[in-house]
Amino acid sequence: MVKPLPIPLNQVLAGSVVITVLLLLGSIMAKLHLAEVSAPAPQAILVLGGGSGREEAAAQLAAQNPHLEIWVSSGDRLPDAAHAIFRQAGVDPERVHLDYQATDTVTNFTTLVPQFKQHRIQHLYVVTSDFHIPRAAVIGTLVLGHSHMTFTPVAVPSDYSPESWLKLVRDGGRSLLWIATGYTGEGLAHYLYPPLPQRALQDSQ
Questions:
Q1: CATH class of the region 40-204
Q2: pTM above 0.70?
Q3: What is the rounded average pLDDT for all residues in the chain?
């Protein structure tokens, strides 16, 4: 007599997780495509704070696109100084939204999703340092894609080396956690990756 073998519970759970993640990623890619079709050109500018030259680059981009509003997420300048950068580039301060909720790259995106939805924005320029683009792209794909938005990255030259793939995996996982639970796992950011020297700390977050 042939005796059926029980399937280990851990294999069932692992398989279920893999299938769920694959379905979620498929859904996100479909939403990204629909957003690109609905809004083929960027409708606003998002500046990821924490890196030298990002506000200046965004100000030039805003001057070239006078119909776009700008959101600066946790920039490293106080409001008066930040507004001065845009004013010097000829950008009306009324177009500039300064937001200081974010504490790292994941929350740069998640904290502003409600505002983008309120303004019916489906396509963003995302301005950040060149070394930071891969991680921002992973997070943006997941967070914005899940929220029916797409983005066009704008790289600001820097002297930093490319980031470790561990950071991409960490923050990709945190983005998936946010999608599933609404929790970003901010406390995991420094726990899962060794702290950097102080001068590079903000750029790395």
A1: alpha beta
A2: yes
A3: 88
